Amino acid sequence: MTHTDTTASSSTESAGPDTGRRGRPPLLPRSGAPAADGQRPRWVFWVALAVAAVLIFGVAPLLLSEFRLNLLAKFFCYGIVATGIGLAWGRGGMLTLGQGVYFGVGAYAMAMYLKLADARERGGPDALPDFMQIAGMRSLPGYWEPFASPVFALAVILLLPPLLAFGFGYLVFNRKVKGAYFAILSQALAAAAAIFLVSRSELGGSNGLNRFTGFFGFALSDPANRQMLYFITGGVLIGMVLLVRQFMHSRFGELLVAVRDQEERVRFLGYDPALVKSLAYSVAAFAAGIAGALFVPIVGIISPSAIGIAPSIAFLIGVAIGGRATLLGPVLGAIGVAWAQTTFSEAYPSQWTYLQGVLFIVVVGFLPGGLASLFVIRRRRRSAEPDRATSATTGSAPTGSANTSQETS
Question: How far apart are CA 76 and CA 166, in angstroms?
Answer without folding.
Answer: 25
